[in-house]
Amino acid sequence: MADAFEESWEEAFARYAEEQLSLGHSAPGTLPATWRESRKIYELSSPGDLVWFDLTTDHSLAYIDRVLGAEIYRTCDVSSVDASHLIGDNRILTTLVATRLRTLRLQDGGYADGIRFASRHGIGQCWAFWMRRTDDGLDNEPVISSDGASFSARDIDFNAVAKRFDIQIQ
């Protein structure tokens, strides 16, 4: 945009910020309190043990490469699979892997409850729970959800993410 208007980056950004504010949007790089208040963080628990695929173990990487590799290479235009692919932003690849692992029958005849992996942003673990019973139109998922709580402006993890991406919390 700066080049198109023959302006410096700073002038172009100021123009963009002014336009956003004139439209009633928040200033770029800010996260308003209304965003936090309209979203909730839910804590999940289970009365029993859950089974997770940890995508970033050497065993999982070897399995995914051996069993799903050919499909991944053909579909996603990669020549090998490593952890950066599995936690990266290629949604075609990550969705393909998650979908295939979701339907994989384990040695005991059951299925995994979901996947977990290190955050690609370096802040904690990510978990994806497959709601199989809900998908089948049934009740009684093996997890219990809290009522949820709004994001606190003082939350340590929330502030770590905001700092990492240079976002001002309002």
Secondary structure elements and their pairing?
Layout: H1 9-22, E1 30-31, H2 33-37, E2 40-41, E3 44-45, E4 52-54, H3 58-76, H4 83-86, H5 91-102, E5 114-118, E6 125-129, H6 132-135, E7 144-145, E8 149-150, H7 156-164, E9 168-169
Parallel strand pairs: 1-9, 4-5
Antiparallel strand pairs: 2-8, 3-7, 5-6
Helix pairs in contact: 3-5
Q: Can you walk through the features of this model?
A:
This protein is an alpha/beta fold. The protein has helices at residues 9-22, 33-37, 58-76, 83-86, 91-102, 132-135, 156-164; strands at residues 30-31, 40-41, 44-45, 52-54, 114-118, 125-129, 144-145, 149-150, 168-169. The protein has seven helices and nine strands, in the order αβαβββαααββαββαβ. The strands form four sheets. Strands 4-5-6 form a three-stranded mixed sheet, with helices on one face. It has a two-stranded parallel ribbon with strand order 1-9. The radius of gyration is 21 Å and the shape is extended.
Supply database-style keywords.
170 residues
Structural class: alpha/beta
> What is the distance, rounded to the nearest whole angstrom, between the alpha carbons of the first and last residues?
28 Å
Largest sheet: 3 strands, mixed
Shape: extended
The average pLDDT score comes to: 87
How do the helices and strands follow one another from N- to C-terminus?
HEHEEEHHHEEHEEHE
Percentage of residues in DSSP E strands: 5-15%
Q: How helical, in percent, are the residues?
A: 25-40%
Number of alpha- plus pi-helical segments:
7
Radius of gyration equals 21 Å
Number of strands: 9
Widest sheet, order of strands: 4-5-6
Unreliable stretches covering 5 or more consecutive residues:
none
